Amino acid sequence: MKFQFWTVGKNHEPYVKEGIEQFTKRIANYYPVEWNIIPSPKNAAMLSEMDLKKKEGETICGFLQKDDHLVLLDERGKQFSSEELAAFIQQRANKSIKNIVFLIGGAYGVSEPVKKRANHTWCLSKLVFPHQLVRLILAEQVYRACSINRNEKYHHQ
Prior knowledge:
Elements: E1 2-8, H1 14-27, E2 33-38, H2 49-63, E3 69-78, H3 82-94, E4 99-104, H4 112-117, E5 120-122, H5 131-149
Parallel strand pairs: 1-2, 1-4, 3-4, 3-5
Helix pairs in contact: 1-5, 3-5
């Protein structure tokens, strides 16, 4: 199984980059992992919210492969405890899912076709976080889930 973390927007900001790299490196001890930063459309500032989501959605759907397991991060999704996330990941591994894509949408969320394509919708928190911090939290939580599945001590520190 491979993890892909996709996010719409700019490259990692320096204040989170080191942490993202650290947790990504740790995840790589369990599963192959990579980041895909999807740039906003060139004329994003000129587009309406709906048109921007549509263009971003077309790009996202163009990148997705038929058998990718898409986990959309969205405030209306299901919340997991760390143990539940670990079980979710283990269940996907047991089903021989080849590729899990964790998607952080753009500033206004994602288009309806992307929502419909998602296999799961996950809410990190009822709190609102800047997209840059969501990246760091996502990487840390996936690492934590992997360490739980291996019964390692990180989760209990």
